[in-house]
Amino acid sequence: xxxxxxxxxxxxxxxxxxxxxxxxxxxxxxxxxxxxxxxxxxxxxxxxxxxxxxxxxxxxxxxxxxxxxxxxxxxxxxxxxxxxxxxxxxxxxxxxxxxxxxxxxxxxxx
Amino acid sequence: xxxxxxxxxxxxxxxxxxxxxxxxxxxxxxxxxxxxxxxxxxxxxxxxxxxxxxxxxxxxxxxxxxxxxxxxxxxxxxxxxxxxxxxxxxxxxxxxxxxxxxxxxxxxxxxx
Lengths: 110, 112
Fold this sequence. Notes:
Radius of gyration of chain A: 13 Å
Strand content of chain B: over 45%
Radius of gyration of chain B: 13 Å
Largest sheet of chain B: 7 strands, mixed
Helix content of chain A: under 10%
Oligomer: heterodimer
Order of helices and strands of chain A: EEEEEEEEEEE
Number of strands of chain A: 11
Number of helices of chain B: 0
Structural class of chain B: mainly beta
Low-confidence stretches of chain A: none
Number of helices of chain A: 0
Shape of chain B: globular
Low-confidence stretches of chain B: none
Strand content of chain A: over 45%
Shape of chain A: globular
Helix content of chain B: under 10%
Distance between the termini of chain B: 33 Å
């Protein structure tokens, strides 16, 4: 079956440092979504990427979809304590299912 | 937040007992999903529905069944709960096939 791998599993950064999480699929994806889950909360949708090589920005967050549509990344510039949480990617190729990555847990040290 | 609720929010049960979790939405979205979340595994799809009485299996469907008799309700049943089904269960909805999913608050289930 389809697998979506995400690295790193954990990341601790000093406030103000940058952060990146990577998502890799064993198969070509039709689209990819990113979610954020705060501790004790539920996943919240951040963005969806559809096109090969697509780059989207949301304030300090930059999302990329690889040219081969098999990988994606989320980069946060100058992290803040409000960025704490677990970031998940979710990829889909065909059908109605999205396959979630295992997530990257971000800790921001003030 | 989207109008999506889950009940119960917490449940402790014993091995071998049946358990039903309910997901209720007020958004009239067509698609509904049940996921389980476990440490080191992220979110894994159990079952999903693409309309009333239209359901299909996800990647971890063994031991679970679902029903959707109304647009707003999606039920997840564990016919005979096992300790391996101890998890946090999330319901999600979306209006179209590849659109963003809105998640409910989750149900924490413990099977002793």
